[in-house]
Structures are given as structure tokens and as C-alpha cells.
Design brief:
Blueprint (H helix, E strand, L loop, with lengths): L1 H26 L23 E9 L2 E3 L2 E11 L8 E7 L2 E7 L8 E10 L3 E11 L12 E9 L8 E3 L15 E9 L5 E10 L2 E11 L4 E8 L5 E9 L12 E9 L15 E2 L4 E3 L20 E4 L7 E5 L3 E5 L7 E2 L9 E6 L7 E5 L9 E5 L7 E5 L8 E8 L2 E8 L2 E7 L12 E6 L4 E8 L7 E11 L4 E12 L13 E2 L20 E6 L2 E9 L15 E7 L7 E7 L7 E4 L6 E5 L3 E5 L7 E2 L7 E6 L6 E6 L2 E6 L7 E2 L9 E6 L7 E5 L4 E4 L4 E6 L3 E6 L5 E5 L4 E5 L11 E3 L14 E3 L9 E4 L3 E4 L7 E2 L9 E2 L7 E6 L3 E6 L3 E6 L7 E6 L5 E7 L8 E8 L6 E8 L7 E5 L13 E4 L6 E6 L2 E7 L4 E5 L9 E6 L4 E6 L4 E5 L3
Length: 988
Amino acid sequence: MLFNKTLQLYAIAFFSMMIVLAIACITTTKLDKPVVEEVFEEFPAWNRPDLTVTEVTVSPKLANQGETVEIQAIIANRGTGVQDAASVSFFWDEREIERFPVEPLGPGVESTYSMSWSARAPGSHNIRVELQLRAESFDPNNENNIGYATIRVSGKPNPEPSVEFAPIDFAGLDLNPGTSVRIPLLMYNTGFVDFVNIPVRFAIDGEWVYSRTIEYLPPGEDLELLLPWRNIEPGQHLITIKIDWEEIFPDSKISSERSWCAIVPDKPILYDKPAKDKWASIGPKVLNGFPAKPHTHLGVGSNVGRIDKLAFHPKDPKIIYAAAPTGGVWKTTDGGQSWKPLSDKWPTLKIGALAVDPKNPQVVYAATGSSSYKGGLGIFKSIDGGKSWYVFAKKNITEGVSKMEIRYLNGNQFVLYAMADKGLLRYKSNDPFVKNSAPGDWKTIRKLSSKEQLMDMGVSPKDHSLVYLSISNVVYSAKLKRKIGTHQGLYRNRKGVSTNGALSDWEELKKGLPQPKASLDALKKPGLMKFDFFQGNPKMMYAALLGPDGRDGKIGEDIPIIGIYKTLDEGDTWSLVEKVTVKNSYNDFIRIHPTNSKLLYFGGVHLYRRDLSVKGPAKEVLGIHDDMKSLTFDPFDSNYYYITNDGGIWRCHSGKDPKPVALNNDLRVTMFYDFDVSPTNSDLMIGGTQDNGTILYQGKSDWKVIRGGDGLFSLIASDNVFYSQTQTLLSTARCDNGINCNLFSGWSSTNKGLPDKYGDNSFIADSNNPNDPYTLASQGKQVYFTGNGGQSWKPRGPQGWPLEPVGAKVKGEVTRVLLGLDFVIAGTSQGQIWWTAMSEAYGKWHLLYTHSHPVRVNSLSLKPFEPLKPVVLFASFTSYKSGWRGACRLIRDPFDKLGWKGEDITADFPTSNCSPQVISADGFNDDVAYIGTKAGVFRGFNNGNKWFWKPYNDGLPLADVRDLLLAPNKELRAATYGRGAWTVITGN
């Protein structure tokens, strides 16, 4: 040990000095003054302890299952000094079961420590006793600080062991004929007995192909097994897992065996491949890497992205429709095992609500837009189960619909209620198959003022004319510094109609409900309210009331209080049932079990289950992703319900143990903020996604989650060095493990020197030089630079950026930064583009371009170039205030660093509704560029005098394109906010 050697050197020095002094005393006859020099040791040789475990015994050495055994250890001090800084720990099969402080021991003194332990698990067990010293203590013989013993436990188990298995997600595996896979299976020790040396066997179609021994698994823990399946054949296969308890408990009749059916298609699954000028989806088909553990909030199985609403076929339980808020309408015909998009050719993919006609299930309504995502174009309608669609109601009639309900009056006469941004709308018709509606067919039965917002709408399950509304006020909170919603009231209309949509046609339900206080502080008012009907008794309702805005409660609190209220007379009177404490609830819904009025669910960040028939708090439902959006009970089996959230769709049992099953295979609705491609490997990309982390692409459409949270900007600096941001610059990190980076380890913070947080301007950029993965640029209000992989950052100017600009004044803040091989380029929020050489990192900046409008630089794209060819730079601009947008191109002669020439290339951009969010250079031609917008991609050509733009969306849905980049093979890749990632082979 280094510390031991140091002490030896001190001792040698001490004795050497004593010899020198002795010789001096003999040879010197006279000293003017006596010389005294002291040498100190931190642990002197005459006061060294030596603490040792001399003996460990177990009695009896052969015990019956459940018998108590005594473990004894003898501790001795073999040193010369007192030891008073230690503890002794007892371990049973590597599990610490007890720890005691060691009483002070003098030299040559022994002490005995013992404990009792119930031997519950049969088999051979290892007992270890270990001495642990404080960090400042010194022990020259610490190898003697551990003692061992063994014990054998036999007999019939009491209580018996218990094990459960998580469902196998075969849909997330590549089951292609002729290939091999490793099937992940999660098993749980749900009993009270330790598993020790338990044999497990795995069979395919009755043939045992794999076995493994579980060395140790204590109660309450889980273990993932990877089961090999080689030379896969097409057809149906029976997959069986069995635990051979009889080998350990010959007197017991315990059986743990579970089987599943796996279906392998006749032909291999071919991943989508791009063609020339035709886009192809590259997923994510599924997101792997989340732990398939029911006791987490990350979700069991695969996640994909946000799903808001579901609608069910009234006669076929396998047909379900799903609405993604920015990913369109999807349909399954096999109960959620696979999904197909229905709206990829629509002009918008923003879906706010769905409804299926209960009498005519081929009639489906899909409302576009919502309060959260705007951009609605009205209500679309299909009369053939989603194969074809018609514009049923235009935007000016029904804008921002977030909920719809259909009720039949008599015969074919029906009404459709729609909760919209402008109020509650009612459509009435005698023809369920009519393809279009006129403005006069719709009636506003409750108008909203500019400061009002509908929070919930419901129609009585037994009376189509009995309608309820929850309305909030939109007010400004000085404490939160933003607008929030506060509860205005719960209202009822008994006729389901209104002459002019006025408030006078509605009754406000007050009795027993808390009322808004006359306070200027919005946070003191009640917040949002949601409600639900009990299907077994239409007069019974429950309502949930939360603090203001449903998110913040009181300042500084993350745990608001939901008040649960109940009525038995259709809302005339209400009573408080209880107050429930939940974590960060949005109060998105409250749902009552269809046949059990005492079983409630309410969802926000987490899903909660409350059984009012028993005492105790509401319980979180685990095993599903966070941020709940809707809960719908299975119309064919009320023992099950479907939950949607930011991870997708799950089917759960309504009992105490829900056992969630993910239904997300091929539901390609991932919301990308950004992505990056390896500079050398086209099959290696990472991207940041909404609430599904930073994810990794390796050439197949099933991506892997490698970092959690809201993944934002990300980089592949080399095939081994990745960078990731979450929640803007608040958390920038680096992983040097390449494709082995994972959700739980390998990441180190790279935030030192960066601003704590800088909104949506946060961005990091590298030089795309795989030989230098540690040189990066970033920005806050100025440009930052690191040459050591983010271990430290420095601003490129001391008091703002840049230092000593040439010939112009800097306007605005930095919004984008681009790092070249020998230069840095930065764009500002006022339409400027600046440049400096790497050699002038703390020197002069040069103004390259100033836009004629005060617009924000959204993106910068550098065309790959050779040393003797011109450098081509593209930039896109947007003004959120005036709505102006555009793009420019700049060209630089490689022999003249100041010879930049700029031109506006989007003066005649064809669509005013499409903002150039991101721009990319072409891999072949300097006179070609691509612009990503909120509705697809445009390609531009320069004929020498003017740029011409055309849509470039063959095969690509008109999705919100957030990033465009070139892969090394010169394929163009697109990241969308709601429809995943895409690729295309571009021509010259």
C-alpha cells in the first residue's frame, strides 16, 4: 500500500537521523547550542493496532428450513495500540444482514460478537464476517479483516417460494426465419424465501434448449434472463419457462411454469429502405432500453411516444383507433399488436379527439388541432373505417376540438357534441353517413369569452340532453409569472340545446363545491376540475378539483391536493369524499369503474388507483410511462382498462396488480427535437425526443434509449463519443462508450462553465471531425468553447460576444452556433451571422450577413466541402412576432476568409403557412437545398438567377420537421415531431 510505504520511509528517515546525531556527538567536542530535531509519524510504530477476525462459526452447521441459527465471530487486536474505530458486518450470501460497532480493544484483547438468523432458503450458503475501519484508521494487516463459514439448509420450505414472470414482448423482437434472437424475460421473487442455486429451464415447442442456475435472488427482487432462440422457423411456437423446485425441495409439490405463443411470419421482416426521391420511415418502430419492471415509472416493455385519445369499435374488440397529438390517426385490427397510420396524407397530423359511431362503426370522426397544439383544420370523417376521409366540418366551424361524444335520439337521428376552443358545439342529423356539414348545421350551446377555457365536457350515459361543462378562467399569476387556469364553475344543461350559447341557459352547480375566493392572487383560487359518470347509476358523479393550473399548487410545492367530490342527484348537491395527496398531478382525468362505484382512477404525471371501500391512500399504478392523457375502460371486459400517456398505450387489469402490457409495436409517433448522424457511419444516429430520452439508431427501425428525460440536442462526435442534452443546457452530458451507452450509466456531466439554463436557444455543435471528438461550441448569450469534451467551457468574449467585431455592432443574442474544421459561425436573434477563425477564438469576429428583417437565425447548415472547393453555408430565419420567415445562402472562396457572398434564397417560398424551421445543404449540388417546415419538406433549385421551391414529400407525411441532416452515404435524414425519423436518397 502506498500509505504503508510512506510510513516505512518516515521510519527509515527517523533512524538514519538518529545515527547521524549519534556520530556527531562522538566526533564533536563542543557545541555552541544543543540541536533538537523532532520527527513525527501519523501512526507511530509503537501504537499500531492490528484488528483481525480469528474465527467464524455457525451453529448448527446443518439446519432445517426456517430454523434459527447462531453466527459467532471472534475479533482480536494483534497490534501494540488501542483500536477504537471499527465496525463488524455479517453477510449471508453477499447480503449484509447485521452490523455492530467494535468496542475499543487494547493490545492482545479478544471480543466475541454473535447474532441470530432465520435460515429460510434451502441449499448451501456462504457466511462472511468483515471488519470495516474508518478511513483515517490504519491497519497493517487488513487482509486478515475477513472471516468465512458455510451452512447447509434442508427441509420442506415454509412458507413456499413464489415467482412471477413479466409478459414477453414478442412484437418488439426481430423474429425473422433463419435468424437468432435472445428473448428477454423478467422474473420476480414475490414470496418470502431467498432463491439460492435454483435451476431454470427454457423450452421451444416442448424441447428443452437452455438451462441456467439462479445463484441468488432475495424476496422482492427481480432478475432478467436472456433466453437464446436459434435458427428461428416460421409459424406458431410455444415458448415455455420452468423452475425445477423439486431438485431443491423434493418433498414439496411446487410448480412454476409459464408458456407463451410466438408467431413468426413466413417471410423475413424487411426494414423500410429509401428510394431515389422517395422517403422511407426508419422508426422508431419500438424504443428498447427501458427496464421492463412493474415497479418503475418508465413503462413495461417498449415505449414510442405520446398518444392522447382512444376510440373503440362497438362490436369488434380487436379494432381500436388512436390519436397522436402531432402524429395523426392510427388503427389496429389485432388488439394493439400492430398499428397502421390512417392520416399520413392529411394536411395536418395534429389530432385532438376521436369518436366512433356506436350504431355504425364504420363511421369515424377525427378532430384536428387541440388547445395544446393548435393548427387544426376542422373535423375529418370516414364512412369506411378509416380507408378514406372527408372534411366534415371546416376550421372556421370547429377549431381546436379536444373531445367529442355521440348520442342517438331515435332511429337514425343523432347528435354530436364537440368541446372546442370557442365553446361547446352541437351537430344534429338524420343521416349518419353524410360526408360534409354546413355551418348552419352546428349550434354553439355555450360560448366562451377570451378569458375562458373548457376543461371538461360530459353527456349523461342515460340522457342525451343532460350535458355538463367544467370551465376555467385564464388569469395571470404574478408569482408564477405566466398565465394559469383557475376554476370558474361546473355547469349543467338539461335540454342539450341553447338558443344563443349564453350562460343563462346553464345552471351553475355550487352546493357543496368550493367556490372561487375574491382574491387578486390567482394561486388562492381553486384550480381545474374534471368529472365522470358512474355507468351503473347515471345520477351518481365524481368530480376532482385541483390547485390552480393543475400543476403547481402553491409556490414551492410539488404535491398539490385533489379534492374528490360526489353527487347522487345529478349535481344538485355535492359532498367531499376525501382529499388525496398525489405527486405533480395535472388532473387530466378522473374515471369511475363501470361496475364498482368505489373504485376510482385519476391521472396526472402518474396514474393513481383509489378503492374507497378500504382505508388508506391512493396507490400509484406502476409499470407504465409517466404523464397520463386518458383512461378508457375496455367496453367488452370492464376488468381491463387502456391508459395513454407520453410513452404510448398500455392495457391493465383493474385489480390490485394491473400487470400492464404495452401495445406500442410499430406505433411510429416519436416526437424528435433534434438528431445527429455519425460522421463516418450512416447507420449510427442519436436523437433527442419528447419525454422518451436520447435514443440510438443502429441501422434498424427499433431504436435504443440511452439517456432519460426530455432529450433535446445531441451529437455523435465520433463513433465512441456521444453528447446529450436534457431540459436545455440544464443538463449536458458526455458518454465515451459508443453504442454501449445506456440509460443508467456511462454519462458524465459537461456543464462546467455553461450558463445554468438558456431556454430553447441551447445548442451544442462539433466540427464533425471524428479525430477530435472533444472540441465543441455552444451558446447562451454568447458563444462558448471547449477543447476537452465539456470538462470546462469558456466564453469567446469576456463581457458578451463577440470581442472586437469588425465594422458592425452585434445585434441580438446567439441562437445557433456552427463549428467548422477551422472556424466558428454564429447566428443571432436579430438576423446577423458572424464568423471567426479558430486561431482567433478570443479575437476578432467578422459580420458575414445581416437580414433585412429582425429575424431569428433558426438553423445553420454547412455543405461538406473539399479543401480547394468553395464553402457553402445555408441559414434559415423566423420571426415569431411578425410571422416573416426565409433563408439565405452564403459562399466563401477557400483562399479568402473574408470573401463571403450572401443571397436571399426564399423570396418566393411557395407557402406562407410553412415556416423554414431547419435548412440543409444538398450532398451533390451547391445550388440545391432542403427546408424542413411544420408541414413537410421543400427542395429548392437555383437556376443561376432565382431559386425555385417545390414540395419534397413523396412518401413523407406532412409532419412537423424539426431537423434535417446528411448522412455520410449522402442520404437526407429528417426528424419529425410526432412521426419519427425518415430517410431519402436525393438525386443530383
